[in-house]
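FORM 7B: Structural annotation worksheet

SECTION A. Query
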Amino acid sequence: MNPITKGKITFKIWRARRATRSQIDIQQQRRLENILSFVRRQSRFYKQHYADIPDEVTNLEAFPPVTKSVLMENFDDVVTDTAVTKAEIDEFVADEATIGTRFLDRYPVWVTSGTTGEPGIFVQDETALTILNVVPDRWTLPVLLGVEQFSRIVKNGARGAEIAVTGGHFAGASGVALMRRESTFYRNRIEMFSPMQPMSDLIDKLNRYQPAFLVGYSTVLVELAQAQRDGRLDLDPVFIAPTAEPISGPEKQELVRAFDCVVREIYGATEFFPIAVECEHGNLHANTDWVVLEPVDEEYQPVEFGEPSDTVLITNLANRIQPLVRYDLGDSITMYEERCPCGSAFPIIEVEGRQGDVLRFETNDGEEIPIFPLALSSVVEEVSGVHRAQIVRTAPATLQVRVEGTSDTTERDVWAQVEQNLHSFLRNQGISGVAIKAASKAPQRDTRSGKFRHVWSELER
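SECTION B. Predicted structure
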């Protein structure tokens, strides 16, 4: 993308910051009509999927939803560049040496398992990447322009730290690596910190690094706030962004008190990162100028304002290489009709989000430490041949693992690697004596919520 085009997109993003609801809706509808017209011309999958729908129809509810599994099964027909194939993408993401590079020198590629438990591969184009980088700034940058904030940024060298799982083509790890590779400014100013390392190691590394900006899994940030209050951690960040997991209002206030800085939640997904960003009044605002959100029930019928959905359908209005139209994201959200006191016309949403418990174990030294759900599930999901998995703590020293393998692997080989990886991970945390048991049942959704939970405990709290 040339600088002029990128500049125009950036200008439109910032101009919409003070747009009226009517202006936002008009812009959304215009982009929606463009993307619908585009996919019907350029995507073989959508052309066939919408074959019975007249060309002049632009009402989204007339178009059938799609799921991650359907899009992955039809990957080569979904994408709009015939040079992009699932076989070559699979080779690309299997090679850790390509993390932070572009497929065909054009497209960032990110992998995810997500709340549905189905693995996914998502290709980004330049417009999608620009939206990812610029949209959050229109919410967060204005609060960082004060003298005190600027001095803290300078004091910490404008360094950023992201806490997320590393070692794969995940959006966080690969996105940071790409930024370091392509940006002279960020090359030495942004670092990844894995939540899979022992908490004491993470604290030591952050104390040495001293970030001005801290982004990461909500559960990890809450634990770091406790370490800051205890005196084990000594950071002076200017901004913290909890993401990837649910975080409550009281937990965000804990972060504010512990670090004395601006805290803004970001709700996003690999499929579309900046779905919503928190304002100064503590409300999440959906960026509906670039994404359409449809809160729906289990039959994909719309739910009323103020009612929690069974899932949410998203339509990405930016990405044209791998279009997502009425895509079942799997999260439960509540959308509100009321305006926010901050004055923004972007709609307020609440998110139930991804499901996972922080598990606490005693180390060999007698110290109780947290094991974070996204870190633990990643240990299993990274095993070759694992399609999806769930980890259940059934006793103080027992983890039961439900594994669904791919068709090209044997159950015995997959389980041996899962068991080995989990024991190795726990040993690295200083934990021994935990039994890893194979469950007789396959991974499944929660019978009450319908959500796919990755990690949870059955012990009484």
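SECTION C. Observations
The longest strand covers residues 386-395. The domain at 359-457 is CATH 3.30.300.30 (GMP Synthetase; Chain A, domain 3).

SECTION D. Sign-off
Analyst initials: ____
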